[in-house]
Write a structure and sequence with these properties.
heterodimer, A: MetI-like fold, B: 324 residues, globular
């Protein structure tokens, strides 16, 4: 039995505690989708369809049964990995889960890439600004943080497209892949699949397509990260333990990394994680600008075509992702901060 | 009692001044303070909140906040601490001059074990093996009455008194020449307080260490100190041997301070009329004059010089002679 305060005990506890959270989220998703106005059957059938056909379709979809019965069926289906069949015009008859699993890797690649860009730039600039408080470099970084934060994503995306794709011709402007056939699907991640297939050329094609969307989304996010890191760093730099470390003659570099930055990262990790989860719900604007076949555009498409099973399935998948990411964030915080592990 | 010989001082402040730039103007935290500490001596610094005690402690270590401007000198081993470069000063901090703070709860890095605090500090100053550093860390911790099995624990797993003992162990592990203790027992309960004072006195005897003890507790001063400096609103009001200060105080502020201690015999408690001055606009002349029952017009106009009224007993009062 590991003692209290060990990371493993903490992680296991945290995992178990996430189950009720998941259950609550799924319940909310179910009821919200049934409370909002709109009738899936009406959207599905043409106007003037005879009422007996409407009723028959309603019955075949199970929508004539009481809510509690529908709810139990919904939960049972989710836990057997069945998210239903699409009724929208684009994916009619296809498994919702299959469509989502096709889209999810595209979103994951974009999100992870953008988070990498945003974290590196955000933590880097935030650190430089915080350490050099009120010096010119701090003012420049703060100005950058504010400007990049308010720039519209589609505008920045188009500028980057014009410069790097159109004028310089260095990078593709749109899509996930071009030229050769996409790599055989194993994980759905083109970068990983091409490496698994041993095709470095395909890997670089996939990577090239990732650069502009990730850069666009990452840059816009980095403004917020910069501000968060800077603000937290200023707080820890003026803390009592930093002053005490200085008085013990600890070298400045070590005080910045081991004392100020590490302590400042605890709230930053939480904010970063939340942002990560939000991005998974699809960066609609980025996806549209770069014709990226991700989750955001899927959700938009499903809403426009009143594809209720697809909408529900997408949101259920988000619920899972949010729960998983919050568990990961908590475990990372537990790794950094011993006080969290109790 | 150790005789004070001004030629063999370890640290000497000369016309030392610290001002803080604030949004409302310049705060005169310390004004032209001159005092010295001899080898092995314990100098107490007393005064009210805002009298500049903590500023003095931090100034000795050179860890004042960035909005502080310093003038005057602090001479230590022949060099002026206020003019040393950052790296030289860093090597002195912790190794030769150590500081313990008032509030032990927030002074340790919550993300590091106690052992890491020790190792980091020892290795910042001495190039010895990790093994040797480890055993010295354990030794220092045990000497403060904390079991060595707890060295891998994190700060939040200790009580306030234990954390202060850890802070003292950290301050002493490199055997400094001077320990600056800024209200080391204020946030602790009375039993822990007396333990810590005992520890400090033992250490002085063993290591012949000098101690600059900053406190507002006159009882501690009477018990532990050789000499006392009384600060009022950033100015040195009186400085002298502990017996003289307690039995034959000169400055009206010192007298008022001493009578503000509750006495068991009379159960009377005197307080000093008025409140400490605003350091942004300190009173002209003698800073104590608005609250001084004996103030004359000269006190408002001229700053009283620090005069030696008895051997080693200084006071800054225009009417010092009449209070002898």
């Amino acid at each position: 039995m590991p003692k209290t305060g060990s990371l493993i005990t903490y992680a296991v506890t945290r995992l178990i505690l996430s189950l009720p959270m998941l259950f609550i989220l799924l319940t909310v998703v179910f009821f919200v989708l049934r409370v909002i106005p709109g009738d899936p059957i009406a959207a599905l059938l043409a106007e003037g369809t005879p009422p007996y056909i409407v009723e028959a379709v309603r019955h075949s979809l199970g929508l004539d049964r009481p809510y509690w019965e529908q709810y139990l069926v919904y939960l049972a289906q989710i836990f057997t990995g069945n998210l239903g069949i699409s009724i929208g015009q684009y994916f009619k008859g296809q498994s919702v889960l299959a469509v989502i699993l096709q889209r999810l890797p595209a979103t994951a690649e974009l999100t992870i890439g953008a988070m990498l860009v945003a974290s590196i730039i955000g933590v880097g600039t935030g650190l430089i600004a915080g350490v050099n408080r009120d010096k010119p470099v701090d003012l420049i970084v703060r100005l950058y943080g504010t400007i990049i934060f308010v720039i519209p994503i589609f505008w920045l995306g188009e500028i980057l497209q014009i410069v790097f794709a159109v004028n310089l011709g260095l990078l593709p402007a749109q899509g996930r892949f071009s030229g050769l056939d996409p790599p055989a699907t194993v994980t759905g991640f083109y970068t990983i699949d091409s490496l698994l297939a041993g095709r470095i050329d395909k890997f670089f094609i996939a990577l090239q397509h990732l650069v502009l969307p990730c850069l666009t989304l990452g840059l816009v996010l980095s403004g917020f990260f910069t501000k968060t890191v800077r603000a937290n760093l200023l707080r820890t730099i003026s803390s009592d333990y930093v002053e005490a470390a200085k008085a013990r003659g600890i070298p400045r570099g070590r005080i910045i990394t081991r004392y100020a930055l590490k302590n400042a990262l605890i709230p930053v990790v939480t904010v970063l994680g939340l942002q990560f989860a939000i991005l998974f719900a699809g960066a609609v604007l980025t996806e549209r600008t770069f014709s990226w076949p991700g989750m955001g555009s899927l959700l938009l498409l499903s809403i426009n075509t009143a594809d209720y099973p697809m909408i529900q399935g997408t949101i259920v998948v988000y619920a899972f992702i949010i729960v998983v990411i919050s568990v990961i964030v908590d475990i990372i915080n537990g790794l950094i901060d011993p006080r969290v592990r109790y | 009692m150790i005789q004070t010989n001004t030629d063999s001082f370890l640290l000497k402040a000369h016309d030392f001044t610290v001002h803080y730039k604030t949004r409302r103007g310049e705060a005169h935290a310390l004004d032209e303070i001159s005092l010295e500490i001899a080898q092995g001596e314990t100098l107490g610094v007393v005064g009210e909140t805002g009298s500049g005690k903590s500023t003095l402690a931090k100034a000795v270590l050179g860890v004042l906040p960035p909005n502080a401007t310093v003038s005057g000198q602090i001479i230590y081993h022949g060099s002026d601490l206020t003019h040393l470069n950052d790296d030289t000063l860093r090597r002195i901090r912790g190794k030769e001059i150590a500081l313990i703070f008032q509030d032990p709860m927030t002074r340790l890095n919550p993300l590091m074990t106690i052992e890491d605090h020790f190792l980091e500090e020892i290795q910042a100053h001495e190039s010895i093996s990790v093994e040797e550093a480890r055993s010295r860390a354990r030794e220092a911790l045990v000497s403060m009455g904390i079991h060595e099995s707890r060295i891998r624990n994190y700060p939040h797993e200790f009580s306030g008194g234990m954390r202060q003992r850890i802070m003292i162990a950290l301050a002493l592990v490199l055997k400094p020449f001077l320990l600056v203790a800024d209200e080391p027992t204020t946030s602790l309960d009375v039993i822990v307080e007396s333990q810590i004072l005992e520890i400090l006195q033992d250490l002085r005897r063993v290591y012949k260490m000098s101690l600059l003890l900053i406190t507002h507790n006159l009882g501690i001063v009477a018990e532990v100190c050789d000499r006392v400096a009384v600060l009022y609103a950033g100015k040195l009001a009186e400085l002298g041997p502990v017996r003289d200060i307690f039995h034959r105080p000169i400055h009206p502020y010192t007298r008022a301070l001493l009578s503000s201690v509750i006495s068991l015999e009379t159960k009377e408690l005197h307080s000093i009329e008025g409140s400490p001055p605003d350091l942004l606009i300190p009173p002209s002349g003698c800073r104590f004059h608005p609250r001084c029952p004996y103030a004359q017009s000269i006190c408002k106009e001229n700053v009283p010089p620090l005069v030696e009224y008895r051997p080693g007993h200084f006071a800054a009062c225009h009417f010092g002679d009449t209070f002898l």
